[in-house]
Amino acid sequence: MTFYALDELPAVDDFVAPQPEPSRERLVVRITEEAVDIALELPESTVQPAGPLHLDALCQVVEGVSHFVLVTHRARRDLSTSQLELELQAEVDKWLLLALGREPRERQRRAAVKDRLFEGVSFADPAGTERGDRYRKAHRLARRFIERLERRYLREGRHEDVRAALCEFYRLGPGDKVAFAEAA
């Protein structure tokens, strides 16, 4: 992702593995002594769509690419990540691409995107399960962090400060990233 000014990473297209419907995005990582093998599984309909993707399908692609970029970025530096961090970063990346990607100064668009991403959502995994609780926590923390960015920077039109904060957040380690979002 050029937004985060990361060193050159492998092209995600080379790692995409289309999956038959119905399926969800999934990053498959196999670690050996010699290498880290990665495949980004995406539903076939998102890999070669017949038309524009609806929000859920688009969010699946963004989430999968976000996971891929973070894992490859960290693997190249021999750094770890956690599943909670992957989900938290993906939630932030969805907001970044959908709310700031086209018209960063349009306040109504940002609000509408934030509402779509964070209000009235449903989760595939039930509350009380490890996955369900992880997704809900990542969702809650991402919202807190985004609202902090809006309060501190976006209301005043400080877009370069938003970018700097997002880049700083991206580079935090798993525990630090979660703590930073919790403190928002």
General description of the model:
This protein has 184 residues and is mainly α. It has seven helices and three strands. It has helices spanning 44-47, 55-76, 83-100, 107-118, 130-152, 159-171, 174-182; strands at residues 16-19, 26-31, 36-43. It has a three-stranded mixed sheet with strand order 1-3-2. A hairpin with a 4-residue loop joins strand 2 (26-31) and strand 3. Helix 2 crosses helix 3 (83-100), helix 3 packs antiparallel against helix 4 and helix 5 packs across helix 7. It is globular. The model has no long low-confidence stretch (mean pLDDT 91).
User: Residue-averaged pLDDT, rounded?
Assistant: 91
Pairing-aware structural class of the strands and helices? mainly alpha
Sequence of strands across the biggest β-sheet: 1-3-2
**Low-confidence runs (pLDDT<50, min 5 residues)?**
none
Distance between the termini: 24 Å
* Major sheet details: 3 strands, mixed
Strand content: 5-15%
H/E element sequence: EEEHHHHHHH
Radius of gyration: 16 Å
Number of helices: 7
Number of strands: 3
Task: Quickly describe the structure.
By secondary structure, this protein is mainly alpha-helical. 55% of the residues lie in helices and 10% in strands.
Key words describing this protein structure:
184 residues; mainly alpha; 3 strands; globular
Spell out the blueprint of helices and strands.
Elements: E1 16-19, E2 26-31, E3 36-43, H1 44-47, H2 55-76, H3 83-100, H4 107-118, H5 130-152, H6 159-171, H7 174-182
Parallel strand pairs: 1-3
Antiparallel strand pairs: 2-3
Helix pairs in contact: 2-3, 3-4, 3-5, 5-7
